[in-house]
From TrEMBL:
This is Serine hydroxymethyltransferase. InterPro entries: PyrdxlP-dep_Trfase, PyrdxlP-dep_Trfase_major, PyrdxlP-dep_Trfase_small, Ser_HO-MeTrfase, Ser_HO-MeTrfase-like, Ser_HO-MeTrfase_PLP_BS, SHMT-like_dom. Keywords: Coiled coil, One-carbon metabolism, Pyridoxal phosphate, Transferase. Its EC number is 2.1.2.1. It comes from Manduca sexta (Tobacco hawkmoth). Residues 429-456 form a coiled coil. Residues 12-408 form the Serine hydroxymethyltransferase-like domain. It catalyses: (6R)-5,10-methylene-5,6,7,8-tetrahydrofolate + glycine + H2O = (6S)-5,6,7,8-tetrahydrofolate + L-serine. SUPFAM superfamilies: PLP-dependent transferases. The modification N6-(pyridoxal phosphate)lysine is found at K241. It is an enzyme of class 2 (transferase).
């Protein structure tokens, strides 16, 4: 390979790929990004991700590596650990942390591998009710997630009438199922979790309690919603959602005294080795050191006053979004939000999730179709999930969200017109748009307005990267 290929700039050495990256950058700049799990990370995080740290292998833990040359990598990982504990105000005598998981799914799988024996029992919120695949998802005909293939999973549900987690039912099922681990975590649930109640249920059954705070970890770091740390044994997170860091995962685990027996004997936590060894050598190879450095700088940012203001604004924007949509007749699951996301029941507009998502995408508003409480199938969801972390990073405030609501409403009204012609099937919906010049023109017109509006807000890294 010539030195030109090794040392040239990407735009000279691979213009074909560079052109695709530029197109994606323009798309991000021109669109309204409302996927609740996405965000725009900071320039320092992007800078860490493109450093020479990427080159280094460092299996093992700091000062106990299987390769040489890790003196600075050790310091970086120890800094990432220290800052992760600081970001959540944790005492290093009571909590340890592993910053090596590649992302949230491997982090969750590592916890189960470490502390739940093969085919041991776990309980998580069912995916159609707002849980995550890795909380043990399976269907009547298929084990979908590996967490339901290698562990025995029993879901808990929301009350279909209120959309709220049915803690009484969870308690009743847990008494029968006797799980080894209960997971308090969500990927689409707009209310704060009752960690105290989860703890009581876990204690009643001798189970570990793990929070998967991936969606809300920025809000927790900022102290603007209740923290899971007071009640949980283990907390996992991704670092790229509300936290706004790199794509990576982190596992926090308790250390020290777990309980005291009636005779005064202390029972100690033994999570540290089990979890560290499950991450490596159990499931992963070399840690991604560029991502670990980026975690370190993201966790530093998470302790700033600016970050707290940002997270407050994320919630204000989500609440304004709910109010705006409700005032235009859309039903919001649970009636509103405490966090960064809203779940809109599209049946209130005579639609389902798929055409709603599609028309918004055609108008450069990104979101995802999602099940709503009571939906029978995750493949045909009735709602859409909308989030405010990414828009808030770009500087949108409540009055800007009013404008966003207006765009969403206009797009959904176009979807209503189209479904009158096409019926509910997505293929027919797409065909009806393709074949109807009036629909196409309305969509093009709205897309142009959305894109002009979106481009008026900055995007971190837009000028530099
Ligand atoms: N895919 C993420 C979400 O959208 O919630 C979670 O992994």
């Amino acid at each position: 390979m010539s030195s030109q290929l090794l040392n040239g700039n990407l735009w000279d050495t691979d213009p074909e790929l560079y052109d695709l990256i530029k197109k994606e950058k323009s798309r991000q700049h021109a669109g309204l990004e409302m996927i609740a799990s996405e965000n725009f990370t900071s320039i320092p995080v992007l800078q860490c991700l493109s450093t020479c740290l990427h080159n280094k292998y460092s299996e093992g833990m700091p000062h106990q590596r299987y390769y040489g040359g890790n003196e600075y990598i050790d310091e970086i990982e120890l800094l990432a650990q220290k800052r992760s504990l600081e970001a959540y105000r944790l005492n290093a005598d009571e909590w340890g942390v592993n910053v090596q998981p590649y992302s949230g799914s491997p982090a969750n799988f590592a916890v189960y591998t470490g502390i739940v024996e093969p085919h041991g029992r776990i309980m998580g919120l069912d995916l159609p009710d707002g849980g995550h695949l890795t909380h043990g998802f399976f269907t009547a005909t298929k084990k979908i997630s590996a967490t339901s293939m290698f562990f025995e999973s029993m879901p808990y549900k929301v009350d279909p009438k209120t959309g709220l987690i049915d803690y009484d039912k969870l308690a009743e099922t847990a008494r029968l199922f006797k799980p080894r681990l209960i997971i308090a975590g969500i990927s689409c649930y707009s209310r704060c979790l009752d960690y105290k109640r989860f703890r009581q249920i876990a204690d009643e059954n001798g189970a570990y309690l793990m929070a998967d705070m991936a969606h809300i970890s920025g809000l927790v770091a900022a102290g603007v919603i209740p923290s899971p740390f007071e009640y949980c044994d283990i907390v996992t997170t991704t670092t790229h959602k509300t936290l706004r860091g790199p794509r990576a995962g982190v596992i926090f685990f308790r250390k020290g005294v777990r309980s005291v027996k009636a005779n005064g004997t202390k029972v100690m936590y033994d999570l540290e080795n089990k979890i560290n060894q499950a991450v490596f050598p159990g499931l992963q190879g070399g840690p991604h050191n560029h991502a670990i450095a980026a975690i370190a700088t993201a966790m530093k940012q998470a302790t700033s006053a600016e970050f707290v203001e940002y997270q407050k604004q994320v919630i204000k924007n989500a609440q304004r979004l709910c109010e705006g949509l409700k005032s235009r007749g859309y039903a919001i699951a649970t009636g509103g939000t405490d966090v960064h996301l809203a779940l809109v029941d599209m049946r209130s507009a005579g639609l389902t999730g798929a055409p709603a998502e599609r028309v918004l995408e055609l108008c450069s508003i990104a979101c995802n179709k999602n099940t709503v409480p009571g939906d029978k199938s995750a493949l045909h969801p009735s709602g859409i999930r909308l989030g405010t972390p990414a828009l808030t990073t770009r500087g949108l405030k409540e009055t800007d969200i009013d404008r966003v609501v207006d765009f969403i409403d206009k797009a959904l009204k176009i979807a209503q017109e189209v479904t009158k012609v096409s019926g509910p099937k997505l293929a027919d919906f797409n065909k009806a748009i393709e074949e109807n010049a009036e629909f196409k023109s309305k969509i093009e017109n709205l897309k142009e307005q959305v894109e002009n509006y979106s481009r008026s807000f900055p995007l971190p890294g837009f000028e530099k990267y």
